[in-house]
Fold this sequence. Notes:
By secondary structure, the chain is an alpha/beta fold. It is 22% helix and 27% strand.
Amino acid sequence: MAVTGDTTQVPAAVHPDPEDAAHAWWTIGPGQGEFRSEPLPGPSDSEASVRTLWTGVSRGTEGLVARGEVPESEWERMRAPLQGGDFPFPVKYGYLNVGMVDDGPAQLVGRTVFALVPHQSRYVVPAEALVPVPEGVPPRRAVLAGAVETAVNVLWDAAPLIGDRVVVVGAGMIGCAIARVACGIPGVEVTLVDVDAAKAPLARALGAEFALAPADPLPEADVVIEASGSGAGLELALRLAPTDGEVIVASWYGSRPVPITLGADFHSRRLTIRSSQVGAVSSRRRSTRTTRDRLEVALRLLEDPAFDLLLGGTSSWRQLPEITAALAAGTAGELCHTIDWSTA
Length: 344
């Protein structure tokens, strides 16, 4: 059933949907949204009809979307593959969707699949847009494919070598995903740095060391990755970088200005700041790997049960109004919050 009215409070009205319709969540203003009923066509020979099981909330990017902070210069580049509407509002946004194929090519029917689809109960897409989830990956864990795919791309950009000391600044979902993937490289020592001492047990459970900023001594580093989402974290990453080293910036700040100090020893140590962005395959692999290849790598890595540590709370799809308000207010949890669509 569709919900209309002020969805930041109790829904004002509920009415029946057409039988062949999906519940789709649209953000219509800062911290505000509504469920829309969207008719679904039958799939063509090259398409598949999918029933959503879980979606995941990408706190960083979806927080910017919920606040309307996607810069106008990035409106086209930031479009999700199957986004509805346009930035800033109204927009149907999201890209962590795990579902079950109900109708389509025989090799996909009954399979659990991952797709870059917004928060929506059902959808029809080209079959090539679906990536089968390995049997060893539970459907809820599979929503982390976007985070692990980002981690793969960041590490392709950072290119750590065997035995390197990798320091990741920021122990949020992306930082933790990067740390766990890096821990799988032989001989690599990984340290997660964060301002929250409560992150220490999580870091160690992922196989990494933990350093509390600014209280603990700074770890030595060969590779420094910044995933904190804060200017202070980027400043710290620059201090951690070795002479002639570089800082790989995985954070994206949207329209917020981020002042950093490029005086002091920045030039004498010949430091480099380099961005890493999941919208395109790392330049180190772009000639040999596609975005689908990268996503398939991420899904295979998710056979590791340690990634369950990155899953936060779960909410019913009907609670998306409250979740969107929390994203806009900056009070959403740092780990991956999952949306259960089983009752949709």
